[in-house]
Design goal:
18 helices; mainly alpha; globular
Length: 357
């Protein structure tokens, strides 16, 4: 099977089994030299939006840095958190200015110069331009990405740039990041790829399962077997697959991440269900984050979740922390700064959203 274009033994490729060469990067909880390997419930705090986005997206780094079965050797120095902070500073001045800036002096200044670069460098240059909102960068990526297939290596530099792109407020930039990930991973956009990943999602090997969940989300986001992928990921939110308690919790969390990555309206309901009913605070928090600002949803899609989030905010069946996440999600989605009072949110919704004002 040539779906994954890897150097795995033929027996493994024929079985549709992926062999992750790396473990997840566990630096999504805290930043700096003293990393705590346990995720922090930072979503419920009143930190700035930028800090919350960083916490959300660094989970994506963990999946991307896995390599998803490719024969790659990803090396990273200083931790992904530190790298992303550096990239954020690099691009923030351009984004805040609201205008496109010319490429860095070290980058080719014309398409002719770009054509002289190797595919790996082309992808890096165009991703950086896309994150900086340089005009035409995402169109260039769309035009070139198929020609890069089989020629990109998933390394730390490409991973850093893709992480920055996934944090963009521009949907076209995020779409470009997903396209480049799929090419760098060697995943073809086809039913046969989904078939292999669905099989892998049913394996007992925990690492292979969670990589499959992420990869399925990538493909479904691009319209490949989307309904089927949503169904598979939703089932895995309920099915522990005989895993240990810790692995089961982690699998459900990555199923949530995959659903958020799909970004279709059909994924709102299972995410709301996970936020309310999953026994793990980590999974409930990830579902709340996905509904609020993570994943690939549009603003209108997020608004669909608002009535249920209001219900959750005073649901006695939920613990105080989860109710707090509901209030935080409401504030992030609507950009309203109302008190943590369910009646106030219901009044606002009826007068502003439901009435069509």
């Amino acid at each position: 099977m040539d779906v994954f274009r890897s150097n795995l033994p033929q027996s493994e490729r024929a079985a549709g089994s992926l062999d992750p060469r790396l473990q997840p990067t566990p630096d999504y909880g805290t930043l700096g030299p003293s990393l705590d390997l346990t995720p922090k419930p930072a979503y419920g705090t009143r930190d700035s939006n930028r800090r919350r986005v960083l916490t959300l997206r660094l989970l994506h780094v963990a999946a991307m840095m896995a390599g998803i079965g490719l024969a790659v050797a990803v090396s990273s120095s200083g931790g992904m958190g530190a790298v992303f902070k550096k990239l954020s500073r690099r691009f923030s001045s351009r984004e805040n200015a609201g205008t496109s800036s010319p490429p860095s002096p070290s980058l080719p200044s014309s398409d002719r110069d770009l054509d002289r670069q190797k595919p790996q460098k082309q992808a890096e240059i165009l991703l950086e331009r896309a994150v900086a909102h340089s005009s035409g960068a995402t169109n260039q990526i769309e035009a070139r990405v198929d020609a890069w297939r089989g020629k990109l290596k998933w390394d730390a530099q490409l991973g850093d740039l893709t992480t920055a792109a996934l944090n963009s407020s521009d949907r076209n930039v995020r779409d470009s990041a997903i396209e480049i990930q799929l090419v760098a991973y060697g995943l073809t956009k086809s039913q046969s790829t989904v078939d292999a990943l669905v099989r892998q999602a049913g394996l007992t090997d925990h690492a292979k399962r969670i990589w499959a969940f992420w990869s399925l989300g990538l493909l479904a986001n691009r319209g490949i077997e989307t309904d089927r992928v949503v169904q598979v990921l939703t089932v895995h939110l309920k099915d522990t697959g005989g895993e240990s308690a810790n692995d089961s919790e982690d699998s459900r969390r990555w199923a949530v991440e995959g659903l958020a990555l799909v970004g279709t309206t059909s994924t709102i309901s299972p995410l709301l269900d996970a936020m309310h009913n999953d026994p793990s605070p980590t999974v409930r928090e990830r579902a709340a984050c996905s509904l609020a600002e993570s994943g690939m949803f549009t603003h209108d899609q997020r608004l669909i979740a608002v009535p249920q989030l209001i219900n959750y905010s005073d649901d006695p069946a939920l613990d105080a922390q989860t109710r707090g996440w509901a209030f935080q999600a409401l504030a992030d989605i609507t950009k309203q700064r109302l008190p943590n009072d369910s009646a106030a949110w219901r009044d606002w919704y009826q007068n502003s959203v439901a009435s069509g004002r």
